[in-house]
Amino acid sequence: MTKPAIICVDDEPIVLESLKIQLRDLLGFDYPIETATSGEEALELMEELHAEGSEIALVLSDYIMPDLKGDELLKQVHALSPTTLKVLLTGQADIAAVSRAIQHAKLYRYIAKPWEIEDLNLTVTEALYSYQQDKKLERQRQELEQANREQAQLIAQLQDNENRLTQILEAIPVGVLVSDPQGNPQYVNSRAQELLSDDALAAVSPERWRETYQAYQAGSEHLYPEDRDPLLLALQGCSITIDDIEIRQKEQSVPLEMWGKPIYDQSGAIVYAIAAFQDITARKQAEQVLAHYNRTLEQEVRLRTQQLEQEIAERRSAEIALRLSEEKFSKAFRSSPSAITITTVTDGQHVEVNETFCELTGYSPEEVLGSTTLDLNLWVNARDRQSLFEILQTKGSVRNYEFDFRTKSGEVKTALLSAEIITLLDQNCLLSISNDITGRIQSERALRQKNEELASTLEQLQRTQQELIQSEKMASLGQLIAGVAHEINTPMGAIRASIGNISTALDNTLRLFPQLFQQLSPQQQTDFFALLEASRQNAETLSFREERKRKRVLRQELGDRGFEDADTLATLLIRLNLTENIEPFLSLLQTEKNTLILDAAYNLVSQQSNSENIKLAVEKASKIVFALKNYARQDRSGEMVKANVADGIDVVLTIYHNQLKQGIQIRRSEEEVPDILCYPEELNQVWTNLLHNAIQAMNNKGVLNIDIARQDDRVVVSFTDSGCGIPPEIADKIFDPFFTTKPIGEGSGLGLDIVRKIVEKHQGEITLESQPGRTTFSVWLPIAGVKA
Fold first, then answer.
1. Structure pTM?
2. What span, in angstroms and rounded, lies between the C-alpha atoms of 522 and 534?
3. Rounded to the nearest 5°, which phi and psi values hold at 625?
4. Per-residue pLDDT tens over the stretch 340-355
5. Distance (Å, rounded) from C-alpha 72 to C-alpha 97?
């Protein structure tokens, strides 16, 4: 680090030399000592020193000089370097000059000539000590400001994480209850309170919770057995899942599926037990309907005549044949993802092929690369090849072109091809993506044939029933016919949907892949195909819980490796079934187009999952398919939506219900107001903070009035508490960040600052009126939302 310099200015060289010698004796070589014989020379010297990165600690200047007088020089020195200390050293200065130097140059000291050595040494020593102390204080001030900024960021991040966790737990349609080792509930989300009761947070021993919440063995009058109680077992270190328990509250029984799991600290001791449960009423009802339907079907079958039994036997034989045919069809899709080739436009030679293409045609990569489709005798019909190139010349791309091809063994198959001309290494190439649809075509033909046969059978059944069954039995037969038709239409619909998904994925791949492939280096292209193969081989179906667990591990690993978008990348990798050993793909993930690469890969491998869906649909053609319940999800589009402010306040009051009931009386006055354009989740944070502050202000006892009204084009929400009030002298500071009146450890001082920023983001305003016994926060929000 460059040492700070001292500049001596005097038009007498002998004076300068004396000063230099005396200062050198005093300071040694701790400070470079520079000299100038005029004010102009001194200013030029300062500019040179500043350009070199040197600081100037002290300037000692004569007063009477030919060009600039000492007070004017020190004034300009102060303008160039305010932190530099200035000493006026002369025997002819007047009081006015000293006054000007003090006023305009912040003169540190005045020394008369001839000076006393002790006086000069003392002045210089004190000045340099003062300079060093000022620099030290400045560094400490900067370090303190940096520390404050970092602390603010950490606090904001902590608040954001807490809010996010709360939002997630409140958004999931599953009840969640967390208990300490003594069985005292520590957290209950809103769904759990709905399923259990409003007193879900009340202290209840683990042995009595079944009695308290009326938890019975399903279909009996006995409390649920203690030895299978998920909460008790979790507190004993066991994990369990049950679905034969029901909660009887408010004259109704709610069947539940329930999970219990212990949570350990680092030493292995149980610190919490978590129980999750969901209402399975719809599932139980569906099971009852299915059981009833099966019993009815069995009764009808026994009442059939011998002729109808023969027809049913034939139908069953047809179903068996259909399943066999569909199994063959499903095997044709196991080679997905798609076969991909890159050939030159000029001579048609293969530049690159993937493993699926080799598996599909029977050729090895060495046999394919450098050869053409004509060399390999792939085309069955020359006209198909000619039509393909005519379309490419006209449109530049082809979508879903169906053609027959010949494998190495001579087998003829049918494929669905999409292709587009791309530029690769300054050469026009043809990118082709093909799917073997031979099995699909055969299965569709078989399905159509079986459908026609079954339709004929059903028609014959209808004619026969008119002769053999009385009119009251015709409805049952109609149900049977409808069931058979349903069993046929359901797999057909699933196959059509999956084929549509495959077609969409192909279109997306052809739209994204050309751009992507041109931007990848040869090594990255190799890594990309390796990523596809790894995803295809890791076709493991994960449970929701296991998927979240692996996503957390992936996100942590990516974060440790320095990825800023670790959460997004972890989500995309999970979609690709890549949950372990991502080391080979780091070069792809570290590119700017990492999300585009993973999206393109997903479009390819998703075809494998759609093929599996087709397989499952075909295998289950004779069964009834029940729709899974859709999980409610938060809107993360980042756009404003219409919402009612009262609904958000209801959610917050529900969360705080247990705390409010201990001494807070809520009085609500709500006018009918329209929905407003807003960010509902963020407004919920506003209501939460205002409610929390009101509870603390009233010391958990008092009256809280919540009013909702409309004034012109705005909705006004007011929270009025009966607390001690806010003193006038701090009322203007309560919205400032980090300002708090709470004891250390009980408040960060950011709550109302966050509230104000959220309200301002909505182009609204928040006001305060306070006096002892009555404090009102009013939030004014525009109905039409934020104006552009």
1. 0.30
2. 18
3. -100, 125
4. 999 998 888 998 988 8
5. 9
